[in-house]
Design a protein that fits this description.
single chain; about 45% strand; 5-stranded mixed sheet
């Protein structure tokens, strides 16, 4: 069977050194655009980038991500003997290939078009020229594209956590009908049975804001209004709106979505200074004064000075998160009471990256994959990961 011939040629290409595969100089581009009914249309172009003709046996094909499938497949080189993953009873990532004889002159090219369905996927195209008698590869090239299929059911996302009193955006993906508007629902219960709020939105995002005294989880879902009949709601996303921490917290901090530009206020309690500390044991007035400073340009404190009663007082540290990177940024609030040593308090602002659905893709060639990192106490004892990353 010629399927075996082509598979043998493919195995030969993968086994030989890269230098032996470059007798033909090839390059490839792949582009994809969304279609209707959860499909995408993709086109690949293979070009002879060398100065001599490339010809002989050739096979070309596509490989898609899990859950995808091919609806149609063609090529302009005239390769007509084709097979796909279903011919071999293979489950998982689908593939389709065609093979035959062909040639490309210097600067010549051929194209292939495929329609893929089944949601987001990483799509690969591959072309191999080989000697038809020895199966020695003459040249090979491949390229990848991320496919995002348009559907009538949008994918929704929101920041996982934010702070009380701050604006945050709930966003969703496009649908097949570009004129469609959207119904967005918000609720404090995952089944949308309580505290239901509904909005009609013309774009692909809307802004919410909540002032809460206790941390509260808000749930969201969305559906298109005119993208076919009986359009279902999207999946559910949620955002935890955290109440401000009490001013007496030992490590005052705030958590907000990455990209937040609004000022974030953090209350910090300054305890009063006992007389014995302030005046070396001698009796003194019950009240004193203080000055307060911060050591980071993105932090400020109000008031920066004032009376400090023996019962203590509260200051407000304001963080400007706009230019900060993802993760925790920590500065120091220094309060100096009159007649007493200064006290340093760390103040942190945590910027978390929004979580949303996206197309799967292969890791970059220089990626280091760590299967698991954890620190837990198990039945048989502690499980500790000790990971060190070094840029050498």
């Amino acid at each position: 069977m010629r399927y075996r011939t082509v598979l043998f040629a493919l195995a030969t290409v993968l086994a030989l050194p890269a230098a032996a595969q470059q007798l033909c100089s090839l390059d490839m581009t792949v582009t994809c655009s969304p279609g209707s009914n959860n499909t995408s249309s993709c086109t690949s172009t293979t070009r002879n980038a060398g100065t001599t003709s490339c010809g002989g046996g050739v096979y070309f094909g596509w490989v898609a991500g899990l859950g995808a499938s091919f609806l149609s497949f063609n090529n302009s080189l005239g390769l007509s003997e084709c097979f796909n993953s279903s011919d071999f009873g293979i489950e998982g990532a689908p593939f389709t290939f065609c093979f035959g004889s062909g040639s490309l002159g210097p600067g010549g090219s051929f194209t292939s078009n495929v329609i893929v369905t089944g949601g987001d996927a990483s799509l690969f195209a591959l072309t191999v020229f080989f000697n038809e008698e020895t199966f020695e590869p003459l040249g090979s090239v491949f390229a990848q594209a991320n496919v995002t299929s348009v559907t009538c059911t949008p994918a929704i996302s929101s920041p996982p956590v934010t702070r009380s009193g701050l604006d945050y955006d709930v966003t969703w993906s496009v649908v097949s009908d570009p004129t469609s508007q959207f119904i967005v629902q918000e609720s404090t219960s995952p089944d949308f049975s309580s505290a239901l709020v509904e909005r009609q939105v013309a774009g692909f995002s809307t802004t919410f804001r909540h002032d809460v005294s206790t941390s509260t989880t808000y749930y969201y879902r969305v559906r298109a209004t005119n993208c076919g009949s009986g359009v279902p709601f999207s999946g559910t996303t949620s955002t935890v709106v955290q109440a401000p921490a009490p001013a007496t917290s030992q490590n005052p901090e705030a958590t907000v979505p990455l990209g937040t530009t609004q000022p974030v206020s953090i209350q910090v309690f300054i305890p009063g200074i006992p007389d014995a500390v302030r005046n070396g044991g001698r009796s003194a007035l019950a009240d004193t004064t203080f000055t307060a400073t911060t050591d980071k340009p993105y932090l400020g404190v109000t008031p920066s000075s004032g009376p400090l009663p023996v019962t203590g007082t509260t200051v407000t540290v304001t963080a400007m998160p706009g230019s900060l990177p993802a993760g925790a940024s920590t500065g120091t609030l220094t309060v100096t009471p009159a007649g007493a040593p200064p006290k340093n308090t760390p103040v942190s602002i945590n910027l978390v990256t929004p979580v949303g659905p996206m197309a799967r893709s292969a890791p970059p060639p220089n990626a280091l994959i760590i299967p698991v990192v954890t620190h837990v106490n198990g039945v048989a004892g502690p499980f500790l990961s000790d990971v060190r990353l070094t840029n050498a």
